[in-house]
Amino acid sequence: MTFHMRRKDKEITDVRVLKKILKSAKYVTLAMSMDNQPYLVSLSHGYDENRNCIYFHCATEGKKLDYLKSNNTVWGQAMLDYGYFEGKCNHLYASVHFSGKVTFIEEPDEKRHAMECMMRHLDRNAEALIERLNPERLNKTIIGRIDIDYMSGKKSKEVTIAN
Length: 163
Known about the structure:
The structure is a single chain. The protein is of the alpha+beta class. It contains five helices and eight strands, in the order E-H-E-E-E-E-H-E-E-H-H-H-E. Strands 1, 2, 3, 4, 5, 6, 7 and 8 form an eight-stranded antiparallel sheet that branches.
């Protein structure tokens, strides 16, 4: 099924801007489905621009993991919220919607790369944390990778995102 952007004046067509939003957003929200039942969850993440994927970690058991093991296709959103535009009855934002498939990573080098990506995304002092990464603990961590196969975006016309 293909959709079109109804508000072309808000559409983001520059892929560099879409990627910048994914790199800048504090979290992503994922929609999943199992047995025709939806589930929505917000996650901290790391966006790897070179691989065009999103990494996240999760507990070793739980609803999110059950859903993703049942159906690894997800739809997600990353949003930069600039707040309500006083006096204009408008909200300022930039968002990216994406779809993709989740793979759970087993290979130690990619797990480390994923964790470094998430740390750099979330922490201003990431390098100090990366130095202390414990290989044993990392081995026990569940890390998912969303391989993005589609992205679209839109933003308020008043919002400017430098690429």
